Write the C-alpha cells for this entry.
Amino acid sequence: MTVLDSAGLRGVDTTAGLVNQSDPKWSITAASQKSRPKTSAMSTAITNALTANNASYAASFTKGDLALPPAKKYLVLTCMDARIDPAAALGIELGDAHVIRNAGASAVDALRSIIISEQLLGTNEILLIKHTGCGMLTFTNKDAYAIVSENLGADASNIDFLPFPVLDEAVKNDVEFLKKSEFVPDAVKISGWIYQVETGKIVSVV
Ligand SMILES: [Zn+2]
C-alpha cells in the first residue's frame, strides 16, 4: 500500500482544498468570522492555563522523532465527550494510532478522516466507540434546528446533526455504514464498542 511518510509530506501544500469553502455548510462559520474583530494572539484564562501546562509538557518532551504514519496501524473513532480519555482508557501511546473524535463518534462525519488515515497513512483496523450518556441520544435534528434558529437566527436545516435514539443500534449502523462504504477496503477490520462513562470499561457490540 502506498502511504505518506514524514518525507512524503514535505512540499505538500497542506492548506490545499480538502474543505470546499463555498459549500453551504461552511457558510455559517465564514459569516460569523467576518463579523468578529481580528485579534492576533488572544489571551484568556484558558489559554494562559493551557500554555503553562504546555510549557511543562514540552520541557520534558522526548518523542519528537516519531514517524508520521501510526506505528500500530489502527484508528479509534470516538465521541468528543469530555469524559472520555482514549489514550488513557485504551493505553494508546504517542505515535501508535489515529484518534478521530466528533459528536457521537459518527462514522458518516468521520469518513473524510478515515479515508485519509487508511489510504494515505496506512491504517487497516477501526475501533468505533460510542458511549453511554451520549448527548446525541438527547435531541433530534428538529430540536437542534430550533435551538440554532433561536440562538443565532440562522437556518441550520441543511445540516444533519446525526443524532441517534438507540445506542447499540447506532454502533451497529455505523459499523455497517463503514463495511458497505466503497471507501473502506474489505480487508479493514472493523469493530463496534460502547464505552461506559460510569465504569471506564469498553463493551463489545459488534
Ligand atoms: Zn457522546
Observations:
- The helical segments are 6-9, 27-34, 45-59, 86-90, 107-120, 141-152, 167-180.
- The longest strand covers residues 125-131.
- Residues 79, 81, 104, 131, 134-136 surround zinc ion (CB under 6 Å).
- The chain has a mean pLDDT of 88.
